[in-house]
Amino acid sequence: MNGFGDYRPLPLSISRRRLLQVGGLGLLGLPGLLRAAEGGTKRKPRARAVIFLHQWGGPSHHDTFDMKPTAPEAIRGEFKPIATNVPGVQVCDRLPGMARVMNKVTVVRTLHHTMKNHNSAGYYSLSGYAPATDDQRLRDSNDLFPAYGSIVDRLAPARTGVPTFVAYPYTISDGSITPGQRASFLGKAHDPLFINQDPNSPDFRLPELSLPAHLSLERLGNRREVLRLIDQQTDLLEFSAKARGIDAHYERAMTMLSSSAIKKAFDLSAEPDAVRERYGRTTYGQGCLLARRLVEAGARFINVYFSQSIGGCEGGWDTHGFGDKPMYPILKKHLLPITNQTLPTLLEDLDQRGLLDETLVVWVGEFGRSPRINKIAGRDHWPLCYPALLAGGGVKRGHVHGASDKLGAYPANDPVRPDDLAATMFYLLGINPKTEIRDALNRPLPISAGEVIQGVLA
Question: pLDDT per residue over 377-395, tens digit each?
Fold first, then answer.
């Protein structure tokens, strides 16, 4: 079982309680639920879980996994390529840790779209749906598409007592909160278990709801008792920012009270110090270690956000260059060292524990960086060609999918869109990408408008 526990797609025989629940929330309706159930049972999952490592700000492929050493200096930049353990595949010389694990990875070199603003591109990368316009003022609303993990929670949830969708340690934004981080029109019950704490903090923990001596778990059979208990103990509310609706709050509280597995997953102090040091004593490093522990506990979709801010000296990958702070010192001192330590450690750890074959790891930003270095020694937004790394969960090992042109400006062959990446993740989880859900206006929409990337499948 590799720590995953039981997983079953939605059955074709649907309980009366489930029908009432769906009807009460106004979500799929019976026809949509039946379509979801039918789609979910037709394919065997290759992946039991997804760890979605979102690289907020947009990494440069020229300085990481698709270098152009023969291009002009203004294109190729400062770094040199080094060989990896996959013949013919090179990575940046600042990523020797990744060089030793590329035999576990598929590199997709041809992701592309047209959204040049962080919020619109971020929404696209977190949901697989393109917004109607490329507008930096795009704001989160129930008209927009849900997060991947919310769809998984709706159609193929984790076993009872374990949250399907967990997200941490930030709510990402650029001016306004970036859409695509929550359940949107699917309803608050499918929002992630959101953890707004630093996993690297000495006092990091999952807050508990303690039961009064006179009250057993069996007596908590109605919402009123649970809500009264929650009102008396505000720690959980503060931890999750705001209550996300009575039904969602009730279910979340019951999970907290009844699941020892999830509580143990959040106890990072149980990990040997040597393991914690290998991942890196950073927010991102400990966040990736927590992701491995959540997979072992049975969670199905984990969003780990690399940074809260898009860029800066210790933020995300938005490396335009900042006044007297050019791009390369930030890459050398912050972005690449963290990536080089944590990402290969996660892949090796999952593999050594027998988890990688059933855990899909996705490393991707909302777009890439421009081929040409700008006047302030940085690279600008570039959604027209950028990379993603996929590992485990039914994808090929030691493989490169697609190629960019000689300058890394556009796909030369096998172009891929975020829609296709979404379809591939759902497919590997055993969910039919053509399954329909209904939006806030009761219109049927497929959970992905893309096609499965057949070339990356093992």
Answer: 999 999 999 999 999 999 9
